[in-house]
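Good morning N.,

You mentioned wanting to compare the apo and holo forms, so I went ahead and generated the holo version with thiamine diphosphate. This is what I fed in:
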Amino acid sequence: MFDRAKIIDDNFLSLIKNENLPSSKSKLKLSDTNFSSKDLISIFESQVTSRHIDLIARDLKNKGKCFYTIGCSGHEGNAVFGRVFETQDMAFLHYRSAPLFIERSKKLNGSTPIYDLALSFMASSDDPISGGRHKVIGSKELNIPPQTSTIASHLPKAVGTAFSIGRAKDLDISEKCLEDESIVICSFGDASANHATALSAFNTASLISNQGGHVPIVFICEDNGLGISVPTQANWIEENFKNRYCIDYIKTDGLNLIDLLNKTLIAEQACRTKRNPVFLHMKTVRLMGHAGSDVELGYQSIKDLEDSEQNDPLLHTSRILIENNCLTTEEILNLYELSRNQVTHIFNTATFRPTLKSSDEVMASILLNVDQKEVPKSTDPKIRENKLGKEFNRLNMPQHMAKLINYGLFDILMRYSNTIVFGQDVAKKGGVYHVTADLLKSFGPRRVFDSPLDETSILGFGIGTAHNGFIPIPEIQFLAYFHNAEDQIRGEAATLPFFSNGQFVNPMVLRVPGLGYQKGFGGHFHNDNSLSVFRDIPGLILAIPSNGADAVRMLRTAVKEAYKNGRIIVFIEPIALYMTKDLHKLKDGKWEFIYPQLNDESPLGEFKSYGSGSSLVILTYGNGLYLSLQAQRDIEKKLRKKIKIIDLMWISDINYEMLLKEVSPCKKILIVDECRKSGCHGEGIFTNLILKSKKPLNIALHAAEDSFISIGNAATATLPSKDSIVQNALNLVNA
Ligand SMILES: Cc1ncc(C[n+]2csc(CCOP(=O)(O)OP(=O)(O)O)c2C)c(N)n1
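and this is what came out, ligand included:
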């Protein structure tokens, strides 16, 4: 009574045998479509294959041979999307998309979708998409990037990719991956449509269309009326989406293949020709519960379950096949059993395939990029000089960090024709701190543009445009606002190479003005001094320059890493140092620097030493470096000894062997970290130095208090200061 899988399987056989099939109000016939009987049979075969995959996967999971089963039963209508959309139409898919995957695979010679899916269920290292790291639906050849389990998080990037198609065509970038006529499809469940991340995507798609831009995306809502146990009201999706501005709404019956084919074709053609978003609403049922361990009877009545089971899409498709003389009852039963045998055989075979074992094997794809690229050569000096105009002569004059980063971005946009700069206020205004000033004038609105006020969309655009060959350089206006959207980096961008075995990457250089010490401006939300959110993201590069010249050298490396190796770089720009010109006293100009030569870069992991004393070494970065250099004179005077200060710069990629060598002559080590002490990078550096050193070390950590930042006179009260660094240094040395 409770094994619904068996009941559904038995139902299918007996109802088909007895030709006792569910009826439909629709009078549509195959001749009312542009599709052939062959198409219909192919779709049915994909639906049946997916059903048997659900059945065997449950079985194998119960026997402990396969992992994490989330089924597609009830959603088999989505096989139609595999038929109607082209393989060049990049697909960001709901986890119930195996029927789509199987049907789409038929467009590719030699594909083996059942085996590929079996390997993924078995977490086998042979799995061609994730290499045994997760049960995902994805394929490089089929343009299906694998998605995470976080619902709705794939929608913003899908919008970004859709947007990128026209942009890549207009800019004619050689790195583009999608054809100019391609569109994007993006599917999700009805409950997911309520998520803030999804709403961000719908809104941005609509907003861009309203501005006359192109976002050729078909949002596909597979509405089974449930989000795990919580019902979605029958009218909710329709009422919520039928009048979305600039998004066409099309409703279809996921149980009726003919209606589904017709409406999907209308959606596909409208999207492809008008290049505007379409919302395709497919009503369907959910069978066999939410996922493996879900006991539906806890929240649904037997009657509800039976009603859904009576409306099994496979029964509906069978009726349509019989009514349109595509297959007979016997042929349907035959196909069903042949498919069962095929799937069972393939899945059983896959149980013998190897799995990942060691941590090295699991981690091998974190930094993997199977498609490395040669970086473009430097810019033609003449063109550069012309484009820079009167600014050209200023390159040889010392400037503050904001200006130098601005020049750095200029040269990057010159050299890499696939880079785009976007974010709130970065274009016309040139950024809150003018770091992106004049870039719009030099490179035009296709490469430098203002985004909507929505961090999720900004980062989604970063991921999505990178899927089509761009190197995005988005800006989040202030570090505190990154947290609104952090899943787009933490859960999405950073995990993509891991779950795709390096076949899909999300190159990106994310610029984030941040950290504390702004005098009299902003309080906590403009002076966020915590970088912990970036500390534990495998593969993410965190760069924090302390001065303009290093910022430029590091920015160049960052873009190179993104271009060549597909890396994600978070580039933190200490706001308080943007306009700083002096170090020790007014007008000394010691914090202004000359723009580095074009070939001058800071290699990943480089750190920089100031001074050569051995009584004390201070390890620091960003504002901490600036303050430590100010403190240096006082410390040396009071100690009557020289000290050394090290700017760590690439804080995620510290080469501890080299660092230990550099600090080894020093008797004491003081780590100065401007971030909140709980969870700051200094904590990790402290531990790593102790663990990796062959001799005992004398280390202290001087970090910010675990506090938010206040406004006014006390704005820096909780942060390390020049004086507190002096005091901490003396305490440590004299202890
Ligand atoms: C952001 C997020 N919150 C919660 C979950 C847990 N979760 C997984 S699936 C799901 C329900 C999704 O329902 P729906 O979008 O209708 O898709 P369906 O499973 O019904 O096809 C939930 C809440 C999740 N995966 N991601």
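The longest helix spans residues 37-62.

Happy to go through it together on a call whenever suits you.

Best,
F.
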